[in-house]
Amino acid sequence: MKSRIISVLIVFTSLQAAAQEKEPGMKTLGKALVDKFPTTRTFDVQYEQLGPSNYDSDLMGNNFERGRIESHNRFKAAFNMPFYASKSKRFVLTTSLRYKFESYEFGNIYNYNSTETYTKERQEFHYWAGALSATYMSSLFKKPVIYNATAIVDGNKDDFQRIKGFVSAAIVLKRAQNTTITAGALVLLDPSSIVPVTPLFTLNHKFKNSKWDMDFILPQRLLFRRELLENGRISLGTELNTESFYLNLNTSNLKGIYELNQLELKSGITYEYCFTPKIIGFVKGGINNVLSTRITEKGERTNRYVYDQKEDPQGYFKIGISYNLFQRN
Which domain of life is it from (predicted)? Predict the structure, then answer.
């Protein structure tokens, strides 16, 4: 989905696995990608249910309403397909498609201006995105380097909305038996981004004489993982995610196309199971902390928001299954 944090780190984090190969190539890169990010597999479907949560909101800097979200769920589907590779397999072009459906059901809501309590009807939102990505693997100072450029178009059920993209480069700083460290930089080609250039850093460490390893990706995740049961893996930790979609508004205060951007910190447990080498499922659950929910005019920076919402922590449950066409048996 339209998640700046995850999308810009997908290519970058693959270096952790590539760095462990004497001559890393695109096969190693692809294996690392699908291992860390299910949405990069050929097909991926996910459903998420979030629990009840109270919220308090401001509109144009003034108290607007407070109330309760009784139910919030998301459905996501992703498709990825490489369609060109050079003879050396170091340059690859990939196309991707994303779809998301979100729905909200509300309890009682109190409006500060009218001092009245009312209820909202169920609200539903659709979001789609398409991307074209070019990835090139090379070396610098005898260390693996990955360059990537991605162009993205997205919209809602009514129309196409925006074009944006990013370019990134990353290099392996350390490659040892149990530890891999990578660093790089990202340039966002999006006028709505507050920080156009972002430094990137990852650390993967396998603990000595232990089945556990640590996977740290700044600023997106800190996970402790180990194999559990045959063909399974468990992960404990925290992940930072962004969610967004477009709103067609026609009120006395807001008219036109707006964007909702939500920043979430999910802490909990994940269990992944490999049914076959090509089919992998997962279940995860825990606590979801909504750090920020803001609405801006389309294309505006998120610090120029017109609507701001604070929300209590909530429980969440997520299930998914993916299919990787190119995984060998």
Answer: Bacteria
